[in-house]
Amino acid sequence: MDSLILLVPVALFMGFLGLCAFLWNLRSGQYEDLDGAASRILFDDVPRKEPRR
């Protein structure tokens, strides 16, 4: 029972840090282009460089 006095505030603090990290990522544009990365895997549009002579 004594350990709950320590573990409950630690768990609340870690949850608050996770929420802050999520909101920071949301505001910085991390989740703007969800379909772009999925479609980039499928297409190989990178031009190949020819060796220099």
UniProtKB/TrEMBL annotation:
Keywords: Membrane, Transmembrane, Transmembrane helix
Pfam families reported in the protein's UniProt record: FixS
InterPro entries per UniProt: Cyt_oxidase_maturation_cbb3 (IPR004714)
Domain of life: Bacteria
Transmembrane segments: 6-26
Full protein name: Cbb3-type cytochrome oxidase assembly protein CcoS
Provenance organism: Roseicella aquatilis
This protein's encoding gene: ccoS
